[in-house]
Each structure stands twice: as C-alpha cells, then as structure tokens.
C-alpha cells in the first residue's frame, strides 16, 4: 500500500512538473510535498497502531499465562473442573487478543486508505490548479 501511495504521488509530481508554469510549480511542489507528508504521517500512525496492537496482544498473552497458572493451582483440588476453566480463560484471552489485533489492523488500513485518498485528492487539486493557471496564462498571452 505504501508503494502505491508513493507511486501515485510520484506520478502526480512528475506530471505536474511538466505541465506547470514557473510560478505555479513551487505551489504545486508544496502541495505535493504536503500530501506526501500527510501520507507518510498516516503510514507512521498505522505502524504505531500495529505496534500497539502487538504490544496489547503480548500483554493479553502474558495475562492469559498468569491466569492459566492460577487455574492450574486450582486444578490440584479438582483436575477436571480446573482444566476446563483454564481452557476457557486461555480461549477468551486469545480471542480478545485476536480481536484487538484485528481492530488495530483494520483501523490502520482505514487510516492508510484515507491518507492515500487525501494524497491523491491533493495531487489532483494541485494538478488542476496548475493546469488552470497555465491555461489562463496562455489565454492572456
């Protein structure tokens, strides 16, 4: 996804550099740079969200292991009942960790999609502005 966003930004940048006038070139470059910065920030946010999800999953797994240990001590009194409780707690903790990772991953994908769409939209607007200014200049000349 990162390559797609950066490729789109690069194509837009190259297209604008060939069609823009000297005055509009600087403005277009600033807009494209801003769009690329926004996309980069969104990717960093996505990476942070994934890191947080992994850390949360690790914490949840650690808690699940502690719960499993406690359940094993209880199993000494009643092996069948303790084993069932331990399995349920591990299953619930694992399901919670998986759901957290899924949500974080989904949120990260949505953030990247939005950033990519914003970057493309900014590049389109910058390109259209440059074309309009160039057309106006040609009309005036």
UniProtKB/TrEMBL annotation:
Coiled coil: none annotated. Residues 35-58 have a biased composition (Acidic residues). Residues 1-22 form the signal peptide. Residues 23-34, 81-141 have a biased composition (Basic and acidic residues). It comes from the Bacteria. Residues 23-141 are annotated as: Disordered. Keywords: Signal. This is Late embryogenesis abundant protein.
């Amino acid at each position: 996804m990162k390559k797609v966003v950066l490729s789109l930004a690069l194509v837009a940048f190259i297209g604008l550099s060939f069609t823009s006038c000297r005055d509009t070139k600087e403005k277009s470059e600033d807009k494209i740079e801003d769009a690329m910065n926004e996309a980069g920030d969104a990717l960093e946010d996505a990476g942070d969200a994934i890191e947080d999800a992994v850390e949360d999953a690790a914490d949840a797994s650690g808690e699940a292991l502690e719960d499993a240990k406690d359940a094993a001590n209880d199993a000494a009194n009643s092996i069948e009942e303790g084993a069932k409780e331990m399995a349920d707690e591990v299953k619930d903790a694992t399901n919670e960790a998986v759901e957290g990772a899924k949500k974080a991953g989904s949120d990260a994908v949505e953030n990247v999609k939005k950033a990519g769409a914003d970057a493309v939209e900014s590049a389109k607007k910058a390109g259209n502005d440059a074309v309009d200014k160039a057309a106006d200049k040609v009309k005036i000349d």
